[in-house]
Amino acid sequence: MTITKRVTFIAKEGCEEKMKELLSAMVIPSKAEKGVIFYEIFQYKDNPRKFMAYESWEDEAALDGHKASEHYAVYKSSYEPYCEHKYTDELEVLG
To answer: Tens digit of pLDDT for each residue in 36-92?
Structure first.
């Protein structure tokens, strides 16, 4: 079953560039992973402190592989000092 998520990050004031750097570093290696369908990071034009990761995976095994990757470990151990708030929405495709 496909897994699709939208992860929203609000950077701390003055940490927008560092947050952008950390999140951007995830794109190329994540897109190369087995089982990835879609993976992009967006920065809101009207609120540069707000970022959104939109990702879709073939199944739970693909998502687990992503979470076990080296680049995910770097992100996971690095983002908190720059992030004021983070939340995840699990999405379901209709149709």
So the answer is: 999 999 999 999 999 999 999 999 999 999 999 999 999 989 999 999 999 999 999
Distances (CA, A) of 11 to 3, 55, 66: 25, 19, 23
Residue labelled with tokens 């879709």: 56
8-45 pLDDT, tens digit each: 999 999 999 999 999 999 999 999 999 999 999 999 99
**Is residue 40 a contact partner of residue 27, using CB atoms and an 8 Å limit?**
yes
CA separation for the pair 14, 52 (Å, rounded)? 18
Contact 37, 43 (CB under 8 A): no
Residues in CB range of 68: below 8 A, 6 or more apart:
none
Per-residue buried b or exposed e for 58-67, using 16+ beta carbons within 10 Å of the residue's own CB:
eeeebbebbe
